[in-house]
Design a protein that fits this description.
Length: 366
């Protein structure tokens, strides 16, 4: 990617509202001279979000632009989710996803009832997820669920009549994480929204095992929507078959130039975006895969390259990178609140509660 040509507003720690170390791209990067089409977001009304494959590029772009407007605009006084109850049902540990969803709701004046630990529900007595789903219909307007089992989404939706947002199901998917990932990337480099000149295309590196890690899988699948800006994709993994039987055909069908290697040194100096993760819930416990690939301040990263990580991290991502301009991972986590707000407002059809300024932006540019 041609760094000279990429002049994007970046706010440093001293300027950004939460004093986050690392890069803090301005959300205005995504919305200046841009349109927001609420009618596209209207496709989400009443729908469950289970998989990245439900989304096309246009819908992800509108969600990201909506998130940028929410990040750049004070909207709490409009109470967009007033009267709505969101149920966060977490049957697997979480720091960011549950709390960012709950923060998103509370900052929009909705209410939250929460299962922070599934073991405190009737599952401890052998209750099925289907029966829990039947109960949740009466208690709230939308469910955000995380579970250790990949098929848990199928089980609960068999009886759920209110929308579900999949917040991570086993080794399956984590679609709102991928939205947060691409929201951060597009704020950092809005050129990737559209067709870009060859010299501006990026080499995307994935350090991890997409076939076994839901966040990496969802990120990779969403990246295919933005393939026109990707020069090359490299998957760096210690596993023999890191893509597995579903992702490999998807990459081939997308016509992406990709390679798989187990030696990060082959590519590190050429990568513009590095997405990494090591923790996955496999079988009945957390495992760390690909942890021998470590990045720290001394790693030979390309100037201008950014690192994303869904977090939590282990040794693979040194804290010595936190206060460098390679750190896009804190912005990635912080911006998740706004992406999740955009998704919640859209799913719950609360566009009419948005402040006039957002409607004006949307109308003026239609
Ligand atoms: N990124 C992510 O899913 O983090 P948590 O496990 O803390 O929710």
């Amino acid at each position: 990617m041609n760094q000279e040509k990429t002049k994007i507003d970046m706010k440093r720690a001293s300027e950004n509202p939460i004093d986050s170390p690392g890069l803090y791209p301005d959300p205005e990067n995504l919305i200046k001279e841009e349109s927001l089409d609420l009618s596209i977001l209207g496709k989400l009304v009443g729908s469950s979000t289970v998989s990245v494959n439900q989304f096309d590029k246009q819908l992800i772009l509108e969600l990201c632009k909506f998130a940028a407007l929410l990040e750049a605009t004070e909207i709490a006084s409009s109470h967009p989710l007033d009267g709505k109850i969101i149920i966060t049902a977490f049957f697997e540990a979480s720091t960011r996803t549950r709390l960012s969803f709950e923060s998103a709701v509370l900052r929009l004046d909705g209410k939250v009832i929460s299962i922070p630990d599934g073991r405190t529900t009737g599952t401890a007595k052998g209750e099925s997820l289907a029966d829990i789903g039947e109960m949740l219909n009466a208690y709230g307007d939308l469910v955000v669920m995380r579970h250790t089992r990949t098929d848990a989404v199928h089980d609960i939706t068999s009886k759920l009549r209110i929308p579900l947002i999949n917040a991570g199901n086993g080794t399956g998917e984590h679609p709102t994480q991928a939205m947060a990932d691409w929201y951060a990337i597009l704020k950092w480099n809005p050129k990737l929204k559209t067709d870009v000149a060859d010299e501006d295309k990026v080499h995307l590196g994935i350090l991890g095992t997409p076939g076994s890690m839901r966040a990496v899988r969802s990120f990779l699948e969403m990246s295919l929507l933005f393939k026109q800006g990707i020069r090359k994709m490299t998957i760096v993994s210690e596993m023999a078959d890191p893509l597995g039987p579903i992702l490999e055909p998807l990459l081939k069908k997308a016509g992406i130039d990709y390679q798989v290697t187990n030696d990060v040194r082959e590519v590190l100096g050429d990568l513009d975006i590095i997405y990494m993760n090591s923790i996955t819930f496999l079988g009945d416990s957390y495992k760390s895969l690909d942890a021998r690939f470590r990045l720290d301040r001394d790693s030979q990263l390309k100037p201008g390259a950014v690192v994303l990580h869904p977090l939590a991290r282990l040794d693979e991502l040194s804290t010595s990178l936190d206060d460098t301009d390679h750190n896009l991972y804190f912005t990635q986590a912080h911006g998740a609140v706004f992406v999740r707000q955009a998704l919640l407002i859209s799913t719950l059809n609360r566009f009419d509660r948005l402040p006039a300024s957002i409607h004006t932006t949307a109308e003026a540019i239609k």
